[in-house]
Amino acid sequence: MVNQRRYALMAEFDGTAFSGWQRQKNAPSVQACLEDAWQSLTGETISLQGGSRTDAGVSALRHVSSFLSASSIPCEKMAIAWNTKLPPALSALQVREVGKAFHPRYDALGKSYRYSLARGPARPAILRNQQAYVPGPLDLLLMQEAAEKLLGEHDFTAFMDQGSPTRRPIRTLHELDIREEEDRILVTVTGDGFLYHMVRILLGTLVLAGQGKLAPRKIAGIIKSGDRTLAGPTMAPQGLLLERLYFADTLFGRDAWPYPDPRREEKKEHLYP
Fold this sequence. Notes:
- The chain starts with a strand and ends in a 5-residue tail after the last helix.
- Strands 1, 2, 3, 4, 5, 6, 7, 8, 9 and 10 form a 10-stranded mixed sheet that branches.
- It folds into 2 domains: 5-107 and 255-271, Alpha-Beta Plaits (2-Layer Sandwich); 110-242, Alpha-Beta Plaits (2-Layer Sandwich).
- Helices cover 23% and strands 28% of the residues.
- It is built from 7 helices and 10 strands.
- By secondary structure, the chain is of the alpha+beta class.
């Protein structure tokens, strides 16, 4: 029997070059690109388990996946070797061995996303694939006031698009930071998990607040209603960046979950071979 080990891969990719993370029949995906590159490199067929199934157009700074391999390539050299077969829009950053039971999706205790929102009289051209655009002014204070109403544990059904049913719409938002940087607004959101399109709908809701079209005091009622039509629009995928996945302990550096979680000790065991 071939002696396989489980590895975790941290990768960075430009989502505008792919149809999303998950392998598809007739469209380029991050998963397929990585798996095909590994097979070309080693002759070995692998099946990657993704920690986040990003949509088309959504990029990632530190996406984590895992795979079983019997390759003789030393772990510390795997990323370098992998990159010789990958396109410019996708880069293997680091690989490390983990426990056989590790699964980046189920062992992740939280995620952080960042959304870049350009504003002003003219839409961006050079950075059009890295920023969403909203014409006209946005009131930062109103957006921040609305963001405060979204923090904490809630049933976020009103902030979920149809297409990915879930039995548990309860999520906890730990951080929803909004700040100005030159001619754009950067929004960072950290939570224990997110529903389908939830981050982009949260952003659409904050934009309505910033435009003066939605009073922040109405946020609580929207959450309580569970009515998708009352929340803001689903913002464009361009501008959305998966910053990192968090685990029970450090996996690749700066990714240990900083909040209390009863699952920590159980999940921590999966990180080590």
